[in-house]
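Internal QA ticket QA-208
Title: Verify multi-chain structure generation after dependency bump
Assignee: T.L.

Test input:
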Amino acid sequence: MGKKYSNLVKNALGRTVPQEVNDQLQVPYMGVGKYKPDANRYGPKISSCSDFPLDGNKQVGSLKEALVKAGLKDGMTISTHHHFRNGDLLANQIFDIAKELGVKDLRWYPSASFPCHEHLIQYLEDGTIHHIEGSMNGPLGKFTSQGKMKGIGILRSHGGRYQSIQDGEVKIDIAVIGAACADSFGNANGLYGKSASGLLGFALADSQYADKVIVVTDNMIPFPCIPWQIQGNYVDYTVVTDKIGIPEKIVSGTTEITKSPDRLLLAEMTAKFCEITGIIHEGFSFQAGAGGTAGAVGEYFAETMRRLKIKGRFARGGSNKYLVKMLEEGLIEYILDGQTFDLDGVRSMAQNPGHVWTSPFTSYNYHGKGNFAGIVDVVILGATEVDVNYNANVVTHSDGMLLHGIGGWQNCLFSKTVILPIPLFRDRIPVILDEVTTICGPGELIDVIVTERGIAINPLRKDLLEKVKGSDLPIKTIQELKAEAEKICGKPARPQYEDEIVAVIKWVDGTIIDSVWKIKS
Amino acid sequence: MGKKYSNLVKNALGRTVPQEVNDQLQVPYMGVGKYKPDANRYGPKISSCSDFPLDGNKQVGSLKEALVKAGLKDGMTISTHHHFRNGDLLANQIFDIAKELGVKDLRWYPSASFPCHEHLIQYLEDGTIHHIEGSMNGPLGKFTSQGKMKGIGILRSHGGRYQSIQDGEVKIDIAVIGAACADSFGNANGLYGKSASGLLGFALADSQYADKVIVVTDNMIPFPCIPWQIQGNYVDYTVVTDKIGIPEKIVSGTTEITKSPDRLLLAEMTAKFCEITGIIHEGFSFQAGAGGTAGAVGEYFAETMRRLKIKGRFARGGSNKYLVKMLEEGLIEYILDGQTFDLDGVRSMAQNPGHVWTSPFTSYNYHGKGNFAGIVDVVILGATEVDVNYNANVVTHSDGMLLHGIGGWQNCLFSKTVILPIPLFRDRIPVILDEVTTICGPGELIDVIVTERGIAINPLRKDLLEKVKGSDLPIKTIQELKAEAEKICGKPARPQYEDEIVAVIKWVDGTIIDSVWKIKS
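Actual output:
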């Protein structure tokens, strides 16, 4: 293995990408909906009940014992999920054990990483971990950007992660699934217990396709653990430990949305845009992230809906107390939840049948027979940068540093209308550029940019341009917005790179949409 | 194709079975837990969202249009489920359409068939349908036993059906899934609407693995249809029709258990046996069928539990008002439901979170990492015949006629204790024989035979023999029971066959445990 990437090519967006990553052949991005693999889904090895305890009790003594029984060895792919967020205690333990056993060159395949995983940098340095495929946030991102990781990082969306597992692009050797509640057979959920995280959807593909699956819990109950968000029929071993997560870091006690006047203005403008264009209509649906501006948009939506006496059919979350309030107030009929951000979300999911858990399979997998993303009327997303062709970036900052994962961002771009409320500049650096540092989403899927100094509508959306005619919305072209920012801040400096790729960004279909380059030291 | 079966062999139970059925190579039964395929699960073709409507609406104008779009053609495998039982209106329609289109040699792959499917005999005769893999009950069984079907029938248990699809043994070209409630994306459940059937678990494998999946409903609601027992991400087309089933034949208004004094005696003896042996204990679990003796056992269990102040952890059903009453009374904490038999069952499933739907995957699939069957403390099953080695038959009668499907019977044999309460003779024909007409389950898995003239315990169960010592239970050997029956009825005549196999019986691992022979005319 190593960072070989001869045969660089330009993909359909003109970005330079490698044709081989970590010794695996790759397909360059070909355009939205253009790449259709002529192949079959991965079929895991056929198991036999005769190899499992007849009474269903798969419990072993410790995580270490489970990993050894699962055959942990050099070069394997180890997957974890991120439902414990920054309170996760499992991923670090797994690699502590790997180190203790002298296992090398592992591929870590988390559904996301968090600052708590900075602990793993020592194992990236000493060769226990060869590379990460998943988000490389904060310290891990910096480490990657500096070219210190042995292999090349691969970033995928939540849907892309499901797709890559389903399609056999990534074969997981051992999946470790932490669960707030489980039975000894391996049925598990995230609903009940001190480490409640709400749901376990991000571990679904891992459970279905991994060669060996280990469920770890600090709340083992008698069979059956209901609901079984993870089905024990996919599970090889179960383990009880004292503590799998730090509760207050798993979910917040409560969610507070932004108090920043700038962000509130963006949120208000976004809601007004959705009202004027009729996007907010009886039976509509929306998705807004939990933090920052996107979270505040939900509050403005709720106000608008009350005023217009409109009810929505469903909202997609990351749920929090604001979405739960809308559900309980009857403003929406359902929350379709991908993850849970606060205790109100956890409580609601455990009690309210209008609160439904989803998975990257149902919501986001591009290699399914459709997914939920396209059904959602409007989605409010963030971005670190947007270019004049509406291409957008969510993973790197303008200094070139890899600092964020993709999450469901790429997948949500298939919603009927995609709105990015973003400030025109951050720290005096313009956010709208001629060319973004890293393309994560093609401009043809991004419809509206809302900034504090005006709203730009993608010229492809003639219908929206028509609808805002005669309104008092400050509609401008994206070039005008860019010019305004540059008048104030000047033309931004571009990052300086070494001639070395440190990570690649996958599109939702498994092709490579862009590369991340080593920062010049 | 045709009924070639040169290379007959004797399997591990000494039964003569073909090594090839309908031109497909077969594995003879090798013993419990002995056959372990070294292969991978079937992976269906990778789909792309770009081939599906972006707004999620997959509705087409009619079932015929959906079948044509799905590419219906000669030789295909068409699957249906049996949740509508004898009220099913879909399976017949599918083959009416196939006939109209002139399509030939189809393989019908139902999860079970019912008398309402007698309509299909014309298509078995004219070559529209080549053969059936699934239960061949009543008229279809008689037709098969008379050697009139073009191909050889294959009978599988519910779990074996899942296993055969998962393992790629049966590739379904088109699955048609009738649902009481669905959205245009294809999410579906059996809970709400005039054709409510409770659940749709028997269509799960079909949805997951079929090349094309059609959901048909008479109750289309806006997305999302919740709960999604069938996930729209597996569905190609959705169809609305006026009526998919005859409600009163789908579920009974109410379940009445047997009033026969003979059967009630067997049920009472069974419950007493379970009390004396300690099988009924705090936190225990049981499964009893809905009809006849097995249904009555549940009532005696409930009485015993009330008297002993014992609560069970769960019951597995076919649920009906008696199980629902136990749940509501708090005698059991959960019902794990495979299907639903009456309106109380449907109501409870829609309302009570202690009422959980299962699938053949979770409950019965032998090629999973365990399944639920082995966790159940005691299961009460029926049989048409038992031999002195405890081998039992559920598919043919003593005249050799194929008259029943296997259902979950084989799968349940893995429960901790298997009890068959059966009369010593039926219509003056002894039920305990030297050799059964057709072996469906190996004797080593069958623990106790309860008859009106005594209880026989399998000598392998030394623990149970120990526990009944000193009790007033009428314990006898199975040979003694057989002798008693023959003293009264005489030695039964054995059926006369032609030298031709008309169907085979699969074991839970996909091997052939026995053959069904053509009845001598």
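Spot checks passed. Chain B has a mean pLDDT of 95.
Status: verified.
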